[in-house]
Amino acid sequence: DKGGHKHYMAKEIAEQPSVLTNALGFYIKDGRIELPGAGIDFTKIDRLTMVACGTAFYACLTAKYWFEQIARLPVDVDVASEFRYREPPITPGTAALFVSQSGETADTLAALRYCAGKADRILSVVNVPESSIARESDLALPILAGREIGVASTKAFTCQLIVLALLAVKAAQDRGEMDAEGVARALEQLTALPGLLNQALALGDRAAEVSRKLAEARDILFLGRGAMYPLAHEGALKLKEISYIHAEAYASGELKHGPIALVDKHVPVIVMAPRDALFEKTVSNMQEVMARGGKVLLITDAKGADEAGDGVWDTILMPEVADFVAPILYAVPAQLLAYHTAVAKGTDVDQPRNLAKSVTVE
Ligand code: F6R
């Protein structure tokens, strides 16, 4: 049942405010973060190793910024297909965390089995509680996204991010890096997300308008800085999966180290940049693109649009949002652009060619 939507993907994008509300309600009780079962005590952990594939991998990369910045916990992130063949040493005090919507991805499960008996704790963030990855973990944290049918992951991604953000706040609190006031503020910012996502979803028509232009491109670049950098990767992955347009993501500051050679008047460059502490640097990266005739699509808030000035090709105006939770909100325009570009191209949105929902072979 597509609930009145043309595609499962559209339905699942639209469901995000309500599934995020469920997840927040599950983990936040009386203003405190409560994990199921025995939970985890981050005072006993001094390194986190995160492993996943695809979209779940980009959720891990985003979470690395959170764990390192707010909890001062060192984090390694790896794609599952590379992880175990490298035979990484797992030092005492390491928790290993596996993120998987299906809980059945072969490489991620194999990486978990590699860590079993080596890591202090095996944690997982999963959508399917009875899956192999959940069953073989010491602690499985559900994302409560509900069944995801569209092959391109959308609501599972934002639910993974919410659970990882809560875990990072818990780690910060356990490790004495965040006081009660800081925790309360972080939880407020997370709790504000469903409302903000509703506002972002209202930009659907705007995204559709821009997407009709994007649909004509052969190559598209995504740029982001800080925690927006992994999101740039997620935006590029979503777009290539369902619209078959070649898309690449770069850290904004990396552009001048090579990829800027690709920029000309045919290449849209999508810059995901809320007005944060690094915004000024992003503006100068954007100017480098525009000076070479590149078409910049800026996704930012009113302050950002104001500071960026003239010369951009187009702008998608987002609500203002706290830096900490911005990647979760900005996932929405990334999804909407991919979706509407695919619709404009007439591709099979829910069943893209060559792809399966769950990859249970290596
Ligand atoms: C992208 C997508 C894939 C999955 C990846 C991992 O839209 O859906 O990249 O994210 O195959 O799958 P899970 O999360 O089930 O382990």
Helix content: 40-55%
The end-to-end distance, rounded to whole angstroms, is 32 Å
Ligands bound here? fructose -6-phosphate
Count the helices. How many? 14
Record field, number of beta strands: 12
Computed structural class: alpha/beta
**Helix and strand run:** HHEEEHEHEHEHEHHHHEHEEHEHEH
Radius of gyration, taken over Cα atoms and rounded to an integer in Å: 20 Å
Major pleated sheet: 5 strands, parallel
Nearest-integer average pLDDT: 96
* Amount of beta strand: 15-25%
Q: For the largest beta sheet, what order do the strands appear in spatially?
A: 4-3-5-6-7
Keywords: Aminotransferase, Cytoplasm, Glutamine amidotransferase, Repeat, Transferase
Catalytic activity: D-fructose 6-phosphate + L-glutamine = D-glucosamine 6-phosphate + L-glutamate
Function: Catalyzes the first step in hexosamine metabolism, converting fructose-6P into glucosamine-6P using glutamine as a nitrogen source.
Subunit structure: Homodimer.
Describe what you observe in this structure:
By secondary structure, the chain is α/β, with parallel strands linked by helices. It is 45% helix and 17% strand. The chain has 14 helices and twelve strands. The protein has helices spanning 8-14, 16-27, 54-71, 80-83, 106-115, 132-135, 155-174, 180-191, 193-201, 204-214, 228-243, 279-291, 302-308, 326-345; strands spanning 28-29, 32-33, 47-52, 75-79, 94-100, 121-126, 139-142, 219-224, 246-251, 268-272, 295-301, 314-318. The strands form three sheets. Strands 4-3-5-6-7 form a five-stranded parallel sheet, sandwiched between helices. The chain has a five-stranded parallel sheet with strand order 9-8-10-11-12, with helices on both faces. A two-stranded antiparallel ribbon has the order 1-2. Helix 7 (155-174) packs antiparallel against helix 14 and helix 9 (193-201) packs parallel to helix 14. The radius of gyration is 20 Å and the shape is globular. The mean pLDDT is 96.
